[in-house]
Design brief:
mainly alpha; about 230 residues
Length: about 230
C-alpha cells in the first residue's frame, strides 16, 4: 500500500483524507447508538486526551520566546484577517447547503480542521512527502486521525467529514511548496513547530471541555512567524 501512495502526487495527504472519511463514517454510524447524556462524558474524555497530546508536543520546543512571539503576532494577524470567522462562516455555509439540522455541524468542522491541520506531523509529514516522496509520516498521522475522526464524528456529527477539504488544501499546498523550503527548515524549526502546535492543540482540548472559548483559528499565522523568529533566535 505504501508504494501506491509514493507514486501519487501528495500521496500522504490523499491517504490522510481517506482515513479521516473512513473513521468519521464509522463514528457517524456508531454515534447513533450513544445516548445523548453520554456525549458530555465523551467530550470531556476527548478533551483531556487532546490536552495530553498537546502537552507532549509543547515540551519539545527549543525557543520559548520565539514560540510566544509567534503565537501572539499570529493571533493578532489572524484576528485582523478574520480567519476564525471565515472558518465558522464556511462551516455555516456547508451546513446550510446540506440542509442539516445538526447544531454542532460548524463546531465539529472547525475543531476537526484545527486538530487535523495544526499538529507538527501535518507540516513535517507534508514536507517529507514533498522533498523525498515519502508518505510514511502522513500515513501514520492518517491512522491517528482516523481514530480521532471516528470519536469526533460520533459526538459532533457530519461536520467532521468536511474537515478533509481544508486538510487536503493545507497539506497538499505544503507538500507542493516543500521543494522551495529545502535547506530552510531546521531541527529547531521542527521542534518549535511542534511546540506552538502543541499549545494550539491544548486549546482545542480546553474548548472541548468548555473551560475556555479560545479563537484558535486566528492563531494559525503564528506558524509562519515561527520560521522567522526561530532563525532570529538560533
Amino acid at each position: 500500500m505504501l508504494e501506491i501512495f509514493k507514486t501519487l502526487p501528495a500521496g500522504g495527504t490523499i491517504f490522510n483524507c481517506l482515513a479521516v472519511i473512513f473513521g468519521s463514517t464509522i463514528g457517524l454510524t456508531a454515534g447513533k447508538f450513544i445516548p445523548e447524556k453520554m456525549h458530555d462524558t465523551i467530550f470531556n474524555c476527548l478533551g483531556l486526551f487532546t490536552i495530553y497530546v498537546g502537552v507532549n508536543m509543547m515540551l519539545s520546543m527549543k525557543h520559548s520566546i520565539a514560540v510566544l512571539l509567534s503565537l501572539v503576532l499570529g493571533a493578532v494577524t489572524g484576528e485582523i484577517l478574520g480567519i476564525e470567522t471565515s472558518l465558522n462562516t464556511l462551516g455555516d455555509r456547508l451546513k446550510a447547503r446540506l440542509h442539516t439540522s445538526n447544531g454542532k455541524f460548524t463546531e465539529g468542522f472547525v475543531n476537526a480542521t484545527l486538530l487535523f491541520c495544526v499538529g507538527s506531523m501535518a507540516i513535517i509529514g507534508a514536507i517529507e512527502d514533498g522533498l523525498r516522496h515519502n508518505p510514511e509520516i502522513l500515513m501514520t498521522k492518517g491512522i491517528m486521525d482516523c481514530i480521532a475522526g471516528s470519536m469526533f464524528a460520533g459526538s459532533y456529527g457530519i461536520g467532521v467529514i468536511f474537515s478533509v477539504v481544508p486538510l487536503f488544501i493545507y497539506q497538499g499546498a505544503v507538500t507542493i511548496a516543500a521543494s522551495w523550503l529545502e535547506g530552510v527548515i531546521t531541527a529547531d524549526m521542527y521542534a518549535n513547530i511542534s511546540g506552538i502546535g502543541g499549545l494550539m492543540i491544548m486549546g482545542i482540548g480546553l474548548n472541548m471541555m468548555k473551560i475556555t472559548r479560545l479563537r484558535l483559528g486566528d492563531m494559525l499565522p503564528g506558524l509562519l512567524y515561527l520560521v522567522f523568529f526561530t532563525m532570529l533566535f538560533a
